[in-house]
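Dear colleagues,

As part of the handover before I leave the project, I'm documenting each prediction I ran so the next person doesn't have to rerun anything. This entry is a single chain, and its sequence is reproduced below.
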Amino acid sequence: MYLSGIIGERLPIRYYLTFGMVASGAFTALFGVGYFYNIHSLGFYVVTQIVNGLVQTTGWPSVVTCLGNWFGKGRRGLIMGVWNSHTSVGNILGSLIAGYWVSTCWGLSFVVPGAIVAAMGIVCFLFLIEHPKDIACSSSLAMHPKGYENGTHRFRLQKQVLTEERNKPLDPEMQCLLLSDGKRSGHQNHVVILPADGGGGIAAISFVGALKIPGVIEFSLCLLFAKLVSYTFLFWLPLYITNVDHLDVKKAGELSTLFDVGGIFGGILAGVISDRLEKRASTCGLMLLLAAPTLYVFSAISKMGLEATIAMLLLSGALVSGPYALITTAVSADLGTHKSLKGNSHALATVTAIIDGTGSVDKREAEVLGPG
């Protein structure tokens, strides 16, 4: 993940993301091919998984960078909270697909998702617009204390304009700021384009330079433990539900998706709160503090019945996945355009890779620490 962010900072996002998605789909499907060809070589599956993991790391730094280019800081929490629900939807679909074929033809549990990912990679190549500057008109502008802001530029409107400047043709990107009939208003405003915090630079930041950005290390460690809990639930929930509620494997897998459903609402809620308060760290801290006692009593309350299990899954998912979603999206985008960069460096992909990569370190520990 760390290397992927550094590479992604220096390559076109559309090409990089397309390659990663097509390759991820191919190696995911290849794992399932082993079922149809009766491949029983451990080395085949180990190598396939390693390469699959490598190419999948191209995804998250790329998509967060793209979203960060389009949306300014003011509403990132809400927009990225809604957008980030795709991760929970993916987990739900993955669980349902795997559960559907797990007892009959498990190879399809890998081939079908692989085909879907590869197909969406082609869609990404054809339709993804990396940056507002790639089209004629800039993205929607968000309010800024000194004017208006999108992911790249800050626009300051000034009343006084020199006479000769009024007769100059406007840049195509500025046409979207004119009146709908294309005419300039009587009291013309002058549009001054200023680089937004962290935007417009041409030099890609180094790994060490990204670590020096205030908050990167702290949020990386915070995500490390939030992901530990999330991964633990992902790997062990079906088994736990089977033992507690005495359901079969398929129904337990379907019920475990409620944790991700709660995560969808938690991510959106965390985004809204952080936008209103303008305090990402406080929002994450509060939700994680509430998550601790909730997880502590999860086991006792879930034994009261199926309804109690459902309620606890939704609540736990919201409190755990809310900060998780906020850190990997809005926080990463904010830090990647931090004011300390002074607009001289591209840092979004590298910062996102550091934060999310650190959070993924404990994936193996989650399998060991999960409830048995």
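DSSP finds 17 helices and six strands in the chain. The two ends are 30 Å apart (CA to CA).

All the best with the project,
I.
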